[in-house]
Amino acid sequence: GAWRDILVPGSSSVDWQRFLDVVRTGHWKYEYQIDGKGCVLPDTVTELADDRSRLLTIGVLASGLNCHLWFDGDVELDFIPTELSCQSDLDALSVFCTHLAAVMGKQVLVTHENSPKEAILSFRPDGRAEYVGEGLSDG
């Protein structure tokens, strides 16, 4: 089935920097690659301003949450919805999104792939979460 996106709408370069800082806090394991080779996650968002292929995989769910670090738009991660096979998977995703919303000070949405207006879940900076649509899992 189609992937799901995790979005921070209205992201700026300041938000991207916060995102990098959140990842670096150590709450979740992560792997960072440039052009398919393991690298150290950059300290600043300005180090992302080139045409190389970047992939940050954060250790939430079995195969992780993937972010391609195209920092000229909204912070966006994606995941395979069939990996939400039990309550603990949904809990892990919710903890990540709730933490991200609190640190970013912005709403975090889980949406259908490439459909930012088709939110499924919404997480607010105050810790509140809301189920707003269909289709979180294809399983």
In short:
Helix content is 22%, strand content 30%. With 139 residues, it is α+β, with helices and mostly antiparallel strands.
Query: Helix/strand-derived class?
Result: alpha+beta
Tell me, briefly, the overall form. Answer: globular
Q: Enumerate the spans where pLDDT stays under 50 for 5 or more consecutive residues.
A: none
What sequence of helices (H) and strands (E) makes up the elements? Answer: EHEEEEEHEEE
Q: Please describe the biggest sheet, giving its number of strands, its sense, and whether it closes into a barrel.
A: 5 strands, antiparallel
Q: If you compute it from the alpha carbons, what radius of gyration comes out, rounded to the nearest whole angstrom?
A: 14 Å
- Please, what is the average pLDDT? 91
Beta strands, count:
9
Strand content bin: 25-35%
The count of helical stretches stands at 2
Distance between the termini: 9 Å
Strand order of the largest sheet: 6-1-7-8-9
- Fraction of helical residues: 10-25%
Task: Give descriptors for this structure.
2 helices; single chain; 139 residues; four-stranded antiparallel sheet; 9 strands; alpha+beta; five-stranded antiparallel sheet
Structure description:
This protein is 22% helix and 30% strand. A hairpin with a 2-residue loop joins strand 2 and strand 3. The chain is globular, with a radius of gyration of 14 Å. The protein is an alpha+beta fold and 139 residues long. The strands form two sheets. Strands 6-1-7-8-9 form a five-stranded antiparallel sheet. Strands 3-2-4-5 form a four-stranded antiparallel sheet, with no helix packed on it. The model has no long low-confidence stretch (mean pLDDT 91). The termini are close together. The chain has two helices and nine strands.
